[in-house]
Write a structure and sequence with these properties.
The complex is a heterodimer of chains A (147) and B (460). Chain A has 147 residues and is mostly beta strands. In chain A, strands 1-2-7-3-4-5-6 form a 7-stranded antiparallel beta sheet, with no helix packed on it. Chain B is built from 17 helices and 14 strands. In chain B, strands 5-6-1-7-8 form a 5-stranded mixed beta sheet. In chain B, a hairpin with a 2-residue loop joins β5 and β6. Classes of the chains: A mainly beta (147), B alpha+beta (460).
Chain lengths: 147, 460
């Protein structure tokens, strides 16, 4: 469980996954069903692919069009991992002035910027002295239903 | 990164050390470095409520009990304003309104999920793998083989990781025994700025120092009655208690328990880590009614609903119950009589055979209500307990069992599956009634952010 390598992710990751809900199904056949059971697999589980660290993962719903440019549309489900380090260029959930917002993080040598993915919302500049700013979590996946 | 390397070293040490124990069983325990930590969430319910509400960070918050009756959790800011713990909401209402304190009804779905997250984080941090969940917001951890000079940084690592992953702030107390760890935790909490929520009592000197400033009443395992008794004897601090003999304690403080307490205070581990119960010995569901109820029909419906809940829990752990007990608590008009509580009325029934099937459990439960209920009495609370648990044999398709029994169990699986995926009891038994006027009052409940798709946080 520990240190398993996650597909496409940044190397090995130490986290926790526990999917007790997913038990292996059985064919439950009345005749010679037992033979089929030998080949029964767990089946594809989205949790396994989309969640790296379960206790640190939260779901949120996107409201508004602040991030359409980044491919996150109104009504989409975003998956947020609090255990990841927020690096420049990542889409994050940030708190600023008592509000939660989803933006792209841009770090320069002495400044932080929260940039929206559409031209309509102006970026938020945060300087080092600001105490009313924090990173809540890092967005890892977006679940979008095509129109 | 640094920590990971250390963890590996510690594991090899553990392996090397375990060899001699085969031959030398006697003195082994005393020489070995054993430390225990207790990790305790700070104002847990308030912390959960604040997680999705940055506007409330550093602001006063309180959470009300089950029925919006009492205050069960206060943030530090609310404590400073003088809001009392466990005091009735209406008595604190003026302070709350004057200071604009944020008030929440209990959101147990959220707290339960957040508690699981905290415990799961601790399990993945533990080198020994030994984590004992002590309550919804506390856990003991076994720190065997963590070098003494690294205890503080390890405890800090635990605190920071839990906070980072779950957003819940915790305090960590570390010492040689559970009782001393509890005292350490208390000290960490009392002065968060200085301790950064971590206190380690490693040396004898530190233990004694801590005991000098701890009153007997706040020591883990010393109840209010014993505290009064001790103080009347002139034993005021933990330091005073430490100097009493085990024989004295076993005479004065309830036998073995008292003697154990003295050893724990001396730093000799006497209360060991408990392995998690893989299945519970009994299952209970009990709630307060929103308003006192006087008609038997409502109470029957409530009891039927609680039985369904309990039966669901029963099936989840693959058990069957041999006994059903029901209790109902009358609302006591006269609080001066007895212990301030109305006398609980309870009764139990033995089932013909252990079962996990809801309707087979509801029938006797409702029958018990008929026995217990007295006309003209108002009731404020009811509960159902399933005991005499045995493994449920009807789970595996059993050809020696009558067909009908298997069908019942299959039906239950279906009910559970539908309810699990749809939540909110889409399928329920008719005995549970359709409108619940006895349902819990929860006027100020926050969304169930982590357990319902319709209630997840909406971010802009």
């Amino acid at each position: 469980m520990d240190g398993e390598i996650f597909f496409g992710a940044e190397g090995s990751y130490r986290g926790s996954k526990q999917f007790s809900q997913q038990d292996i199904k059985t064919a439950d056949a009345t005749g010679f069903g037992a033979a089929a059971d030998d080949y029964m697999e767990r089946g594809i589980d989205l949790n396994e692919a989309l969640i790296r660290n379960k206790p640190a993962t939260f779901f949120m719903r996107m409201r508004g069009d602040a991030m359409t440019g980044a491919g996150i549309h109104n009504g989409d489900m975003v998956i947020v991992d609090r255990s990841l380090k927020a690096v420049s260029g990542k889409i994050v959930i940030a708190t600023f002035n008592g509000e939660m917002m989803i933006r792209r993080l841009e770090k320069t040598f002495n400044k932080l910027r929260l940039v929206s993915g559409s031209g309509k919302v102006s970026p938020v500049e945060v300087d080092a002295s600001c105490t009313d700013f924090s990173i809540w979590g890092v967005v890892t996946y977006v679940i979008h239903q095509p129109a | 990164m640094l920590f990971k390397v250390k963890t590996v070293n510690m594991k090899t040490q553990q392996l090397n050390r375990s060899t001699p124990t085969l031959f030398d069983e006697s003195g082994e325990n005393e020489n070995r470095q054993t430390f225990k930590a207790i990790v305790d969430c700070n104002s847990f319910y308030c912390s959960c409520e604040r997680l999705f509400r940055p506007d409330l960070w550093n602001k006063p918050v309180v959470v009300l009990s089950n029925n919006d009756g009492c205050i069960v959790s206060r943030s530090d800011e609310a404590k400073k304003l003088g809001v009392g713990m466990a005091s009735p909401y209406f008595m604190e209402r003026h302070i709350i309104e004057k200071n604009g304190i944020a008030v929440f009804s209990s959101n147990y779905n959220l707290y339960g999920d957040m508690s699981w997250r905290v415990m799961e984080t601790l399990r993945s941090l533990s080198a020994s793998g030994k984590v004992e969940v002590y309550s919804v917001d506390e856990a003991f951890m076994d720190l065997t083989d963590i070098p003494e000079n690294e205890l503080a940084s390890y405890a800090m690592h635990i605190r920071k990781t839990v906070e980072q992953w779950t957003g819940i702030s915790v305090s960590v107390g570390v010492a040689r025994t559970k009782t001393l760890a509890k005292i350490a935790n208390h000290m960490a909490k009392k002065n968060k700025a200085a301790t950064q929520c971590v206190t380690v009592l490693a040396t004898e000197e530190e233990q004694h120092q801590a005991l000098r400033q701890t009153r007997v009443g706040s020591i883990w395992g010393v109840g209010r009655q014993y505290a009064t008794k001790l103080e009347n004897m002139g034993i005021i601090s933990g330091w005073d208690l430490l100097h009493m003999s085990e024989e004295w304690a076993s005479r004065q403080l309830g036998g073995v328990v008292g003697a154990r307490l003295i050893r724990e205070l001396k730093g000799q581990p006497s209360i060991e880590m408990r392995a998690p119960l893989d299945s519970k010995k009994m299952i209970a569901t009990t709630r307060m009614f929103g308003d006192p109820v006087a008609d038997i029909q409502s109470i029957k419906e409530a009891v039927a609903t609680y039985t369904s809940r309990a039966a669901e829990k029963l099936r989840r752990q693959h058990s069957a119950a041999g006994y059903v007990s029901v209790f109902i608590v009358p609302k006591n008009e006269n609080h001066n009589v007895g212990f301030g509580r109305g006398a609980t009325v309870s009764s139990y029934a033995r089932l013909p055979a252990p079962t996990s099937i809801t309707n087979e459990l509801i029938k006797p439960a409702v029958h018990l209500v008929e026995q217990l209920f007295k006309n003209g009495t108002y009731y404020k609370k009811a509960g159902v307990m399933l005991s005499g648990l045995v493994p449920d044999t009807s789970i595996q398709a059993n050809m020696f069992l009558p067909e009908a029994k298997n069908a019942g169990r299959k039906l239950m699986d279906m009910v559970d599956n539908v309810n699990f995926s749809m939540r909110d009891d889409v399928l329920k038994f008719a005995a549970s009634g359709t409108d619940r006027n006895w349902k819990m009052r929860q006027e100020l409940r926050s969304p169930r952010y982590t357990s319902r798709w319709e209630e997840v946080y909406e971010v802009k």
